[in-house]
Design a protein that fits this description.
The chain is an alpha/beta fold. It is built from 11 helices and 12 strands.
């Protein structure tokens, strides 16, 4: 099999290897591939592995040799699934590899907002504590999480993990989910979308992106939230109307926003969130711990091996 990795740098910038894949075929690795380069680079491939490279119907039609598309991520919206299915091309993804890492980043953002460790570290490096008149100081609100209401939108693998951590920290957990209330742990209260917006002290988004959840957080939904609420998005950027969130932060109608994802990545320089001091933005790195990427790499190879052996796994276009 001729295996072409189209944008390998993101998941493996050099601290991992491709040895497991090299045992399965001839492997060519491109760190990045532009739209203009993708057909030429994939034209002789039986198998391509992609992260963010778009495989639309037009591109797929130009690759008659292609048999398999392996998405090196959980989300697979970069592939025209119907076009691949019509061609008999198997498409796979990597489910649940980053659950622990994304849940950890969710709370890293929450704690960055509530405890402001980076702010105080910076102040102390500039001698503020050294010359302080008292034994301590603080100039930001400090919030204890225990007893607060943690609202979770979506209870998949990551949502459940976040709920569990929140409970262990003494928070009251409620969720808006398609799951039946009887199937939830007794410590999770199922609520409506409006109920989640109205009652959450911290609202964390872990739902899929679809027509129903696009701009789930809008100006109208923010009006239903507490002005003291903290919003967290480690799911998908377009779940949030960023203009509306920036405006709400600026006007004091939302306390803080923590996000690891944005509607456009890389984002525009003039994105209004970058001007808001209570917006805490990280560059889509929740999935990128060494441990999560190691699991990802192993599962990519396992998916390819299973396909070659005739029993594909993690297929998303059956």
């Amino acid at each position: 099999m001729n295996i072409v990795i189209m944008d390998g740098y993101a998941s493996n910038p050099g601290d991992l290897n491709w040895d497991a894949l090299k045992q399965l075929g001839d492997v060519t690795v491109y760190p990045r591939t532009s739209d203009a380069e993708k057909v030429e680079r994939a034209k002789d491939a039986d198998i391509i592995l992609i992260n963010k490279v778009q495989m639309d119907a037009e591109t797929i039609a130009k690759l008659p040799r292609l048999k398999y598309i392996g998405v090196q991520a959980t989300g697979f919206n970069v592939v025209d699934i119907q076009a691949a299915k019509e061609r008999g091309i198997v498409v796979t993804n990597i489910p649940a590899y980053s659950t622990d890492s994304v849940a950890q980043m969710t709370f890293a953002l929450i704690l960055a907002i509530t405890n402001r460790v980076e702010h105080y570290t910076h102040e102390n490096r500039n001698d503020r504590w050294t010359y302080n008149k008292d034994f301590c100081y603080w100039d930001t609100p400090l919030m204890e999480l225990a007893g607060k209401k943690m609202g979770i939108m979506g209870l998949g693998n990551i949502g459940i993990k976040v709920a569990t951590i929140a409970r262990d920290m003494g928070m009251d957990v409620c969720a808006c989910t398609s799951k039946n209330a009887t199937d939830l742990p007794e410590w999770i209260t199922k609520v409506s979308r409006d109920g989640l917006l109205a009652t959450s002290d911290i609202l964390s988004l872990h739902c899929p992106l679809n027509d129903d959840t696009y701009h789930l957080i809008s100006d109208e939904s923010i009006k239903k939230m507490k002005p003291s609420a903290i919003l967290i998005n480690t799911g998908r950027g377009p779940l949030v109307d960023e203009e509306a969130v920036a405006k709400a932060l600026h006007e004091g109608r939302l306390a803080a926003y923590g996000a690891d994802v944005m509607s456009q990545e890389p984002p525009r320089q003039d994105n209004p969130l970058f001007r808001e001091p209570n917006a805490f933005i990280t560059p889509h790195i929740a999935w990128a711990t060494l441990e999560a990427r190691t699991r990802l790499n192993k599962q990519v190879a396992a998916n390819v091996k299973a396909f070659i052996e005739g029993h594909p796994i993690n297929v998303v276009n059956k």
